[in-house]
Specification:
Elements lengths: L1 H7 L7 H5 L9 H6 L2 H15 E4 L6 E6 L4 H10 L5 E5 L2 E6 L2 H10 L3 H50 L2 H4 L2 H12 L5 H8 L3 H15 L5
Antiparallel strand pairs: 1-2, 2-4, 3-4
Length: about 220
């Protein structure tokens, strides 16, 4: 930044005020800013971030803001938009605040100004957040599957008990009785585990369990 400021501050250089002018003069430097190459613009933004920026990654939220003079805030936001990094701005306690809350926008900005450590930390947190969300999704799905399996096994065991009491179970086909016995011996087993244990197809186990519940159901009035 020091070399950039010296180079741009050479006598007669119309671009010098873009970097070294006070904020009150920034509005008059739009033409000079537009004439700067992108690497000079990014160097200026890096300096503004180092001097007036803050990055927060707390509580699972990402927040980056510049706190500048009130008249600089809209100009800074405009310059960021020109670099395809649109940001919101507002006045807070007589100071201009330019803000990003999008993790993607913040990561792009940090990458373009060469803020490697900050970018790595942000990406690490984003990956961690994604993995945590995926793990929660898987756990919720597994929990729902376990709940359904437990409820189904309870219904099936109740049906088997009723069929055994009234003698209906003994009259059912051999394959259905085998599935009923396997279910009673291992109430926690899944349909696939019962199928593997008996050496039959999963669909055959499913049909047998459905028949057991159907046979035990009370007759319709």
């Amino acid at each position: 930044m020091a070399r950039l400021a010296l180079r741009l501050a050479r006598p007669g250089d119309p671009d010098a005020a873009v970097v070294v002018a006070p904020s009150a003069d920034l509005a008059r430097q739009r033409g000079a800013w537009d004439a700067l190459p992108e690497h000079c613009r990014l160097a200026w933004l890096r300096g503004r971030f180092l001097a007036h920026g803050s990055l927060s990654l707390a509580g699972g939220r990402t927040h980056l803001e510049f706190v500048v003079a009130p008249d600089e805030a809209p100009i800074l936001a405009e310059r960021l938009a020109q670099l395809e990094l649109p940001a919101s701005w507002r006045i807070r306690r007589d100071r201009g605040v330019v803000t990003w809350k999008s993790g993607e926008s913040i990561a792009t900005f940090l990458g373009r100004i060469g803020a490697g450590p900050g970018l790595l930390e942000l990406e690490a947190r984003q990956v961690s957040r994604t993995l945590r969300g995926e793990l929660n999704r898987v756990l919720n799905a597994e929990s729902a599957n376990v709940t359904r399996s437990v409820l189904a096994a309870g219904r099936q065991l109740g049906a088997i008990g009723r069929l055994e009491e009234d003698g209906t179970l003994a009259r059912l086909p051999h394959a259905v009785r085998l599935v009923a016995a396997a279910r009673r011996e291992t109430p926690e087993a899944t349909i696939s585990e019962i199928a593997d244990r008996l050496g039959i197809h999963r669909s055959a186990v499913q049909r047998s369990l459905e028949r057991l519940e159907r046979e035990a159901a009370p007759p319709l009035a």
